[in-house]
Task: structure prediction
Amino acid sequence: MTIPSKLLELARPRWLSLLVIGLCLGYAITILTRVPQWMLPLLAVAWLGLGATFHWGAPGPAARPTPPRRWPWALLPIALWGLYLYLAESFGNVDLSAVFFHLQAGMADHGGVSRIGAAFLYTLSMGVLLASFTWLVRHDRRWRRGEPLLALVLLVSNPLLYGVGQRGAAIVTKPGAWLERHYVEPVLLESPRDPPNLLLLYLESIERTYADRERFGDAYAVLDQLGERGLVFEGIRQVDNTGWTMAGMIASQCGTPLMPAGLLHDRQFSPLEKVVPGVDCLGDLLSAQGYRLTYMGGASVNFAGKGLFYEGHGFDTVLGREELQPRLDDPEYVNNWGLYDDSLYDFGLEELRRLDAEEGPWGLVALSLAGHAPYGYPAQACLDRQGEFDGVDILFSVECSTWLARDFLARAEAEGLLDNTLVVVASDHLTMRVSAWEQLIEGERDNTFILLGPGIPQGRLRREAAMMDTFPTILEAMGFTIDWHRAGLGVSLLSDEPTLLEEHGAEFFNARLREEIVLQERLWEGLAPPRQEPEPEPEFLEQVVEAPEDATGEEPAAVQ
Result:
């Protein structure tokens, strides 16, 4: 049986190279735009059509080969774009602050086993792409001439390098200190006579956006029912530097976005010894009031500095995978990240009994992981209740996470462990790329934030707010009096005071995060180099305290 000549033609290096480039280009388009993935083959065919029309790589005067030592300038820019696409495909968006923080805080004992396989495939694909592009440049004079310009365009358009350059410019220029001026040191002016206990449940990636039943069915229905017993906040947006677990917890417990030490850290990417040591957080304040505090999570506390943060901010007991897994009846009943949520909540119930049996108020902070992107980790209890999991549908995992949280609260309440207790149910951040991603990004998204307990009114309250506003809100919900209803950059949502987002908008706030480092220096006081005080200006010059846009959040008026 003879192979048709046209198929043999397609197997030649020219067409193989063009096909690889076309497939990779089509894949990039589907990741960076809303073009559906089923269009990828059509995009590759269109690329091959262009190659045939312009005779790219074809033998002839335009395709005289160059010496084999000639390497294209664009290889590094293409590889950097490959890295960006990997991060974008994995997480939905690329947060350089998260990259910086995890490099310094530690990524040991993480649960990204599935992402290791994806990284291997990405690396293999990039190797094939770079080889194909090199072949094309070496065999087509037109590509060889235009390739240096292509390299420059790819380099300057890469969001990774843009973000690095922007942060570097902020460090060099040290522009205004708007964020620092709006930061309010958290101080408890008055305490309630009978301080309530605090149970703070972070539901990994379970954003309130899932409450839209037209898009997501009943996946969030359990939390909707739970919220009817308390106060549900709507409009809790995600600003920059609050979009991963540690950042979300720090925003909601310290009232400030997590601006990583990054290039301010005097030892650069050596491991951190403390996490945001320059500010007082929820644990610091409650510990000073005599609270006994515990953190529990199914994942390792060594990942992303969780243990460092809680141990350094007033928590007496910090429990993660290393401490809890040996206590399991079946130590093998774990997932890539750690304990399943049904196991975590069983241990959480034991910890509540221990705390409640001792004198004085207590606080328990727990972090679930059933909703963790990209597919979630539904527990066996959910499989028994919901049926078989297809391994992909995130809505299955969302329903599992919400049901297990409500079941835990019901069991604790039945034992009387939640008497005189403020219960807070919150998402740590908006979810990253999951199977329902296209539906999630159809409209505005917001985080879960629900208050339950004595004295908490029932209803819904819509505010334009951020996770940092939950910090003073929790304090006031517990009955503490704080200065001007503010703590950190947050404003209590139980007050009539406007939040920073209501006054200035998220776009203005995020711009300040990208341009300023003074608050960042406060967060990492002691780890960053000492703050340099500005030299006094001559008396005959009028000192400008803040630019017009700093004062109002608006652009200065144009000169007429």
Remarks:
- The longest helix spans residues 113-139.
- Confidence is low (pLDDT under 50) at residues 169-173, 264-269, 534-560.
- The chain has 24 helices and twelve strands.
